[in-house]
Amino acid sequence: xxxxxxxxxxxxxxxxxRAGGSARVTRRELPAPAASSNCNSPGARQIxxxxxxxxxxxxxxxxxxxxxxxxxxxxxxxxxxxxxxxxHVKEIIGKVSLRTLYGWAKLLNDSVNSGDWQNLLPGWSYGxxxxxxTPDEKAVFQRQLLHSGKINIGxxxxxxxxxxxxxxxxxxxxxxxxxxxxEWFKKxxxxxxxxxxxxxxxxxxxxxxxxxxxxxxxEVGDVFIADxxxxxxxxxxxxxxxxxxxxLVGYLDWKxxxxxxxxxxxxENTQCIASAMRxxxxxxxxxxxxxxxxxxxxxxxxxxxxxxDFNESGLTGxxxxxxxxxxxxxxxNARAKLIERFFREFTDSFExxxxxYIGNSIANKPAHMLxxxxxxxxxxxxxxxxxxxxxxxxxxxxxxxxxxxxxxxKGKTIGEVFNSGRGMGVNLADLDDLMMDSVIRQIxxxxxxxxxxxxxxxxxxxxxxxAIVRYxxxxxxxxxxxxxxxxxxxxxxxxxxxxxMAAALGDAKDMxxxxxxxxxxxxxxxATRQGVRGIISGGKDIKPGWDGGIANRTAISYQPVKQxxxxxxxxxxxxxxxxxxxxxxxxxxSVAPSVRLDFDxxxxxxxxxxxxxxxxxxxxxxxxxxxxxxxxxMLFRYFQRQG
Length: 643
Hints:
The chain is of the alpha+beta class. Strands 8-9-10-13-12-11 form a 6-stranded antiparallel barrel. A 5-stranded mixed sheet has the order 5-4-1-6-7, sandwiched between helices. It has 6 domains: 3-120, no CATH class; 135-206; 216-419, Ribonuclease H-like superfamily/Ribonuclease H (Nucleotidyltransferase, domain 5), CATH 3.30.420; 438-495, SH3 type barrels; 498-529; 560-642, no CATH class. It starts with a helix and ends with a helix. The protein has 23 helices and 13 strands. It has helices at 3-12, 42-64, 69-82, 87-93, 98-109, 135-145, 153-166, 175-188, 190-198, 200-206, 271-284, 297-303, 315-321, 337-349, 374-379, 387-402, 414-419, 502-505, 508-538, 579-582, 602-612, 617-627, 630-642, and strands spanning 223-230, 235-236, 243-244, 247-253, 259-265, 290-294, 325-329, 439-444, 447-450, 453-456, 466-472, 475-482, 488-495.
């Protein structure tokens, strides 16, 4: 049977209803010839070719069937619906009715290209075609979809229909057509969709192209990336003593993915970035080539509210002096996403395990911080570490991090890649300018009092003035001291408290520390006396003239009266005398030598007086002063209590 005969059949016959009911029509409205763009759609091509195969098989069946053609058509559809023939075609286009079959036959031949399978392409804009909303529906619906409140499609559909009906404008489209149009618009105008509903940051993160960088061309130390991270656990504020959330500013080596150096900041301070770089250089052993800092509004707003532009913060001069090229990312340009991923790992594997973890949002609070969680509150110990303790915990976690595989070098760990590029070391004096902002403190007899600790250096012994102290919160074991004019005075080490009874109750470490400090006191005191002797002996004695010639009189040597019970040559050696014998105030004393010794330490002179007696008024004053000192309590009073 030819195509012409099929056309005549469609003109003469009407749809024949099945037994017990009318024929079901899958598509009441015959689609118009498909647009040419539909030819490129794989789905539309598949449907058109399946329809063509169905029509071709139907024609052959009608040609070979006996009896009337109407009965043959009904039998053909019954066989097709059962899946005995053309099962693959049925999976594509499903069941069809006689009316649909006649319609396809007409479409196949009622065109310029008669018999062309492209005449059977779907007419509902399959795939990328725009669903047909009315212009009024489209205008109102689009405004609702692009609202910054992110109105969902169903709500936007209801608002559109209500608005048009209220204005007396027809809205014939079904809700499913609105949904299809919204999905079509989103696919074909994704940039407008994202910018209107989510903003510029989402446009940058989701739509705009990003540059894929080839990290393999970098070497360790070529680029250090800096960023800040507000710690999600509390630490003790070193100045106030209260719990607070500090900020960690760190530098990540781009090649090895290792956190080279960092600084913990409790208050806003752009110098903290330079201090973090200093710690990174010390550990790396040489300076990097490029320092990459985010200069965007987000970074400044989070950590440095008072800084409008890092180009005006002084960092450029500090870095360039060390031959480091500083690079500041501009707002809405490529940023240091690499270190942000590092901080996410830092939060998941470290911060959540700390005892003072508080979460980074209300939704991420630990159980003990929620209301009515008495069980978890009872389990939580509530310990808040100091900054020193936090640094120790971070260093322990970094050992775990550095043992992980390097994302940029296969077969090696992060630590191995970083260590392969380390330098031989740097001159710490060249990095002094990179330390945190300085403070001015008074130099006293105990050195410098700073952050509830004493920092001491032998160079401070002779000074009684104010000095500049530079420090790093990530390492408070020492500070650097400068004169007010910038002259470097040296490093002052932190001195911890010593055991009050080191000789009797302390361990070997306590005894060694006590001996060291006593030796240091003797050395400094001796140096002072030598300095005084040098001044006196080096200059000519000045005689003002009103001494009455006393200075020219013959000096009379003083010979103390020997006491009863003189031991003479039987004097007990000092090292053989028990401590309780020192404390016995007896009138029987050894004969004092005619020449007084030059004692380096006060306790040595006190022991000498216990042996030979306190003979002059000046000796008694010395005895009173010494017995009220800490040295006397430490070295002599203990034995008195034991007795």
